[in-house]
């Protein structure tokens, strides 16, 4: 392509810099420039400075795809050739890099080598160590002007990224940027995002260059601890154990700020201590003595506003209870913190405090209290268990969806308690279950509350299945959990519903299609949970399959479609055990697929389900092959490759092996040949060979005659052969070899 660069590149550069160029043309121009730079970097890189800014702004909002991939590879190669060409606009490149959702690993490596985040790395570092960073850092420093929030925010973020990559080599540049960052974090009315990014960047500078930053600690520690999103701040600021600065410098200052006379500062300090503890793990142990006495004193203080702070109401229970809550992850994974939480709770009256907060008139206080109760239940249930008899009635009274956050946290806490109590939860099921069932059946209940309610009901059923009646909630339970991601809470809830179905499978028969839909939402269930799903299917199938058959009525498309799909899914799980139920559903499916004007999606699902039934029970379905093969072929010839299509085609091939006469008509043979040939092309030679090896011997024996009839008829119509060998080979090897 090299000789043609001069012919096209000047015009492309002119187009990308032209004002009011249409968006699509801009994007295509940027992609093409990137691709030219990828294959001929020496010719394009010298002009990098002429187009890098509009190039970045053109591609920052398009979705990940192969064209974007090749364009970014090109720009990275060009930066390697001419790093100076991107210095003035490197922040725009970093912004464009950040638009990627899931770059390939090797492309991510290219970003590391030439983006702001890795100025000290490998290729670019060798080119730029002597001149790029001295030139670039002052530019970033000059852009730390909060009057221009967007630019300042990007520059701040970029400095933090550079610091984490350069480590101690950042030392010469701390003095260039730190004064401006300290000024920004102390500035009144700084935008929240800028304040947060500034705090993170200061923390990162302190992490890699503590000797340079520590002397200025007093200048920024107060606004730093007041920064919003403390959790994000501390995790991002350190990215490692020590968080922001060496704990020996930082922890005493936080300890001094544990003064409940200053509620806001004290609250931020407690959050910060908890977050740092989670980052440091066992390394936190030497500093426990620095903060523990003050924490105990705070927890033991009177908490009601009228007893303590007469001039300002207590905003929430968080300020007195946040530290134990922030320790929950460490308590579950570190013996040191397990001992710490035991020590804290044994020296304080935290459970008494919690009991009072749970009955407070302020919803915010109750909300935080129930969140803490759930956290403490997970972290140290031994200390919570003696209080359960007193806590459960209060939890039941707060299952009121008029106060959504309170109700949500109370619901979650009940579920956590149930998992810890096991069968001992039985006396309390009647206290909370009626309200939970009412909430899950209530119209317009918020999504998060619905999901937590469903999880808690499932957990109650898991530990006390005899006490929980399925009929009252199974349908909304299934619809609530069908869209949440796989996790431990979902796992325990589904185990509970399976146990309940085992106890009372009749309770789910009318709504089993909803349960199966919810089961299908799992991406990767554990093996024992998968076995539970299978046993639930077996337990209810004899009662449920006739109901599915009755719902195969295309007058009600949505219901019919779901019933059809469910039958296919069940068939693939049941295998040969589906045999007794084929006669219940197959006649209706054959009628639907032959019905004129059937909706396209219903036709496709019907064809897939018939194919699946034929795959697991070919002897029962194959005799009817001639009744549905033509609409079956036309229904599936245009859908994309997927697992459902794969299983359906496997089924039709197995049925032809059992009943080849069902597809002998010339037009049907031609139609099936076209589809099967296309399927073979799509799956590839190796997959096709594996696929065809599964066909029964009867199908493979019909080799020369059937193969010759199909191929010859088809090639005559096309007036050209496919170059296939007709004789001496089986239908599925010679036709498609």
Note down, in words, how this protein is organized.
By secondary structure, the protein is an all-alpha fold. The relative contact order is 0.03. The C terminus is likely disordered.
Based on the model shown, name its key terms.
737 residues, mainly alpha, ARM-type_fold, 70% helix
Secondary-structure map with pairings?
Elements: H1 5-17, H2 23-39, H3 41-44, H4 48-59, H5 66-81, H6 90-97, H7 105-114, H8 122-128, H9 132-142, H10 149-166, H11 171-186, H12 192-208, H13 210-213, H14 217-225, H15 230-238, H16 247-256, H17 263-280, H18 288-300, H19 318-326, H20 328-333, H21 335-347, H22 350-357, H23 363-379, H24 381-384, H25 388-397, H26 404-421, H27 426-440, H28 447-463, H29 474-481, H30 488-503, H31 512-519, H32 527-550, H33 557-574, H34 579-593, H35 600-616, H36 618-621, H37 625-636, H38 643-658, H39 666-683, H40 685-692, H41 697-701, H42 704-718, H43 731-734
Summarize the structure.
The protein has 737 residues and is mainly alpha-helical. 70% of the residues lie in helices and 0% in strands.
Oligomer: single chain
Which regions contain 5 or more consecutive residues with pLDDT less than 50? 116-132, 229-244, 304-337, 702-737
Largest sheet: none
Count every beta strand, where a strand is a DSSP E run of 2 or more residues. Answer: 0
User: Strand percentage, roughly?
Assistant: under 5%
Number of helices: 43
Distance between the termini: 38 Å
**Structural class based on helices, strands and sheet pairing:** mainly alpha
How much is the radius of gyration in Å? 34 Å
Q: Considering DSSP H and I runs of 4 or more, what fraction of the residues is helical?
A: over 70%
Shape: flat
Average per-residue pLDDT, rounded, comes to: 77
